[in-house]
Design brief:
Bound molecules: adenosine monophosphate
Number of domains: 2
Helix content: 55-70%
Number of helices: 14
Strand order of the largest sheet: 1-2-3
CATH superfamily of the largest domain: HUPs
Radius of gyration: 22 Å
Number of strands: 5
CATH topology of the largest domain: Rossmann fold
Distance between the termini: 30 Å
Oligomer: single chain
Amino acid sequence: METVVSGIRSTGNLHLGNYFGAVKNFIKMQKEHNCFFFIADMHALTTHPKPGDFKNGVRSVMIEYLACGLDPEISTLFVQSDVPQIPELYLLFNMYAYVGELERCASFKEKIRKHPDNVNAGLLTYPVLMAADIIIHRATKVPVGKDQEQHLEMARNFVNRFNHLYGNDYFPEPTAFNFGEALVKVPGLDGTGKMGKSEGEGNAVFLNDAPEVIRKKVMRAVTDSGPSAANQPKTEPVQNLFSLMNLVSKKDTIQSFEDAWNNCTIRYGDMKKQLAEDIVTFVAPIQERMKEIASDEKYLKNTIEMGGEKARISAAKTLKDVREIIGFLNA
Ligand code: AMP
């Protein structure tokens, strides 16, 4: 069994891409490993959110993850700012991170390019906070996307420097969790690329979209002019519809549209109607749970408190050890 840590962003609703690309794996992982999932609210402060929006964002993200099936009884589901040991470890690890390597980090360079008016020190040291998030639980595995691999590499460098400096092997090297075959790319509805919240209006179907919104979005999905010969390879927009169907529709439904494609009788209108209904059916129980959780303030509060408590126990142990290793007078 591995100790796994994964951060969850603190704002924005989940779409089908997030569900099938990340959350579904978390749900499986939590049954097999010692998992810590946290809402990264401190990381979000780099963009200076307004307090009200900030609070609501964290609350609704927690509701969505719980509704999807993250189980606070078997995994540790917590809010980053409830664990003060994380920023303390972050401060300590800033001593083992060099300004040059932080400045060379690709995500930092991109942030400077996109937001030259807000190049704060928190952005520069973001990889250090991310390392602290991981190593505070002495995690060995981190489920990361390609864009996070450099950060994980940096976390390994900080850990190795610490271990080397103090002549021990206290921290294990965190490595990427390998999902193998399970990693899917969920396409969007605009005919190209993947589903994403910043890919334009209508490209993503959110788990909390009302049925009529889902139908409208799917009916507007990009297609092509139809197959002109039997058994043709599919164009990207049509393949995308089939890929979405593969996630939410029954096998024989998919097969009937495959057959219709292959013998050139496919009607995209019918396919989209079916896909929309299958998505509506898929999200219905999740939406039902979201409503239940949102209306039970006590459950939500207790769940968040319980997660914080579990995370603090794990974090306090690491921090005590680290303070001892460093040589603080009172570890
Ligand atoms: P984001 O919403 O961009 O912050 O993505 C959060 C996580 O969701 C990513 O690290 C991916 O693991 C996953 N994800 C987002 N969009 C997709 C997609 N279209 N297909 C597969 N996985 C996705």
